[in-house]
Amino acid sequence: MREDIKSMTLEELTAALGQMGEPAFRGKQVFSWLHRGVRSFEEMSNLSKPLRERLAESCYIDAPVAVQKQVSRLDGTVKYLWQLRDGSCIETVLMQYRHGNTVCVSTQVGCRMGCAFCASTIGGKARDLQPSEILDQALFTQSDSGLPVSNIVLMGIGEPMDNLDNVLRFLELVNHPQGMKIGMRHISLSTCGVVPGIRRLAELELQLTLSVSLHAPDSETRNKLMPVNRAYDVEELFAACHDYFRRTGRRISFEYAMIDGVNDSDWQADLIVQKLRGMPGHVNLIPLNDVAESPLKPSRRVSKFQQRLESQGVTATVRRSLGGDIDASCGQLRRKAMENGKKGL
Ligand code: SAH
Fold it and tell me: Does the pLDDT of residue 179 top 90, yes or no?
C-alpha cells in the first residue's frame, strides 16, 4: 500500500528520502512542495524524473475535491464540501474577520460524541481524518479562495480529542516554518470535554487556545445535552480546566450555546461564575443554531445571561453569527448532502 506522504513530518520525509539515497535537503524541497498544495509529483519541477516516479510508486499525495462551494452574500463566509479519497465528505468554513481569515476545519468524518443539539453527530462517526486531510482543508481553502489564511479553529465536524494523535501531528505540520507557518497562538482547538485529552494537551504546553464546549455548568443538564458528561462530569471537567490553566498559563474559552429553557437560567450563570473562580476564563455565548432534526430552540435570554456573567466579573461575549444564509454551522451541509444522496438527488 502506498504511503500518505503529506502526513509525514519533515524529519520522517528526510529519513525516507535518505533511504532512497537522496541528500538531506531533498526532504525540505519535497515538504515545501507538498505544503504549497501540489496535487502530483509531476509538479515538483526541481526533482529528477526518476525520483518523482519512485515517489509516486511508494506514496500518494492527498488532495480533496471541492464538490460544493457556497459563498455567503451577507458576509463573504465561504463553505466547502470536500470529497476525500474514499468518497466520504467533510466540511470546511472560511470566515473573514477584521483580524484575519479564519479556517474552521473538521477532524473526523462524522462524530460519535452524540451532543443533542449538534448536526455533525447525527449519523455517527465514519472514521478519523488523517493529518494530511486536516491540513488540506486549510491548504486548499486558501488556494481556492485566494484568501490568505491566518487563523485556524478546530471546530468543524468531529471531536479533535477523539483523534488526538492525528490532530497533534496536524498542528506540527500546519505550524511548521517550511509549511503554512500558522502560529500556535492563531490556532484554537475545541473539545466537548474529553478530560484525558485536555490533560494530555496540558502536558505539551502548546500556546494554542483551548476551547471547551461547556453548554451547561451542572451535570444534570449537561448529561442530557452531552453524553460525554456521563464519562467525565462537570467536576472532573473543571478540575482539568483549572489544571490546564495552571500548567500552560493560557486562558480557556468556554463555548455556551444558549438553549431556551434548558441552560439559560440565572442560577446557571451564577454557577458558571463559581466554577471559574481562580481562573481567567472567557465565555462565548452562541445563539443556538436551529437544527431541523432537533426540538431544542434558541434562547431569548442571551443578553440577560451575558450581563449576569459580566456583572460578576466573568468576561462573556456573544458570538456573531456568520454565513447564516449558507448552512455554515457544523455538520449542516454534509447532512444535506447525505439526505439528498439518500433521495438520489
Ligand atoms: N467536538 C468539538 C468540536 C466541534 S466545535 C466540540 O464539541 O467542541 C463546534 C462547536 O459548535 C461546539 O462548541 C459545539 O458544541 C457547537 N455547536 C454544535 N451544534 C450547535 C448548534 N446547533 N448551535 C450552536 N452551537 C453548536
Answer: yes
